Amino acid sequence: MREFKIINKDRDVQYKNMMEAIGRNASKPVVENIPLKSTRMRSIINSHRLAGAYKSNSKVAYIGEQFPTEIIFAFDYIAWNIESMGILFSQSGDVNEFFNLTQENSISRDICSFLRGPFGLMLANCYPTPDIIVANDQPCDCLGKLKFMASKFYETPFYKLNTPNNINDDSISYLVNQFKRLLGQIESTSGIDFEEDNFRSVVMYSNKARDYYCKIVQLHRKYNLPGISRELHEIFGMNCFGLKETVQLCKSLYSEALEMSNNPDYSKKEKRVLWVGQIPEDSHELLQLLEKEVEIIYWAPLWEANLMMLDDDEPLKSIARRAILYHWHLERMREDTIDICEKFEIEGIVLANMWGCRNMMGISPMMREMAATKDIKCLTINIDIIDRNNYSFTNVKNRIDAFLEILL
Ligand code: SF4
Q: Measured in whole angstroms, how far is the alpha carbon of residue 185 from the centre of its chain?
């Protein structure tokens, strides 16, 4: 790729670019037929947070989906999850013009669209200029590389964590030491001191929200709660544990889940299918097709790492443990998925193989083997939920119809 630089770093201009792009491409309202109050609440919180990132005096940190954001929030940065931003945008419009931009700049089409989408948005100068860019290697190292390239585009400081694969005392200390070094680097970049008390309140908010989140998961195991699995996924994707607003959001979702669980209409009755892999927007035809017949349970929000509380006394250690748990480690993921399948009484698995996703390619054989061992029906579909050029509904529909016939 030729040397690319963002020339106009004015956030007002970038905001205008983003709004114009959304307006130009919007094919349907972003929010429609919302059954849960919490969904609307999440939408308002997100809009406010994201619009705030374009203000000239905001401090913005580019992060990824599983970055330990508590560290960033301790310095009052707005976390800009670059991958999720691309997804959010794709839900409201046609991203072809941005994919074309990536191709014009020699980005290979074989790279997943979760990376090409944000790449295109940066090339079109729609993202707010970051103050810092931080990366770990999760969910994959490609995201770290994209952030490294972003740091070149914007000429912004870039810090990277290396998360080990195995969990033991040495690997946890190794990561904790990196966190401490990162805190020092952020202090010298931002000119803001790391305040222990500020960090403790971030950890407290993180745990409060997580406590509600875990209670929702527990209820959901027993009851068919429409929309709840999806909301858990969205909250996981926001990666905003540590903010006061996330506590309010999780509290609100818990009270809605509790209310539904007390309603006999929601006692569990439908067959459950676990959706493994990246998830299209709620109104996507594949989800509509499946939801007519089965209850879809989303896999990622139920991972062990997402149900983990932080240790108030040694928060960095427990954040390190959680970070390692997020790795796509085959043996741990196999055990975690078996546990989810048993607790949710899963009868079928849909493996959504995203175009260009190396993680899904790597994990799919293990998932198929595990499903066969546990006598769970398993279907692999090849899709691209952002770039429609890589996906045909008719082909996938035939396979889903056949899968449902076997399952029901
Ligand atoms: S390769 Fe897969 S896990 Fe990595 S950014 Fe792309 S979609 Fe996400």
A: 26
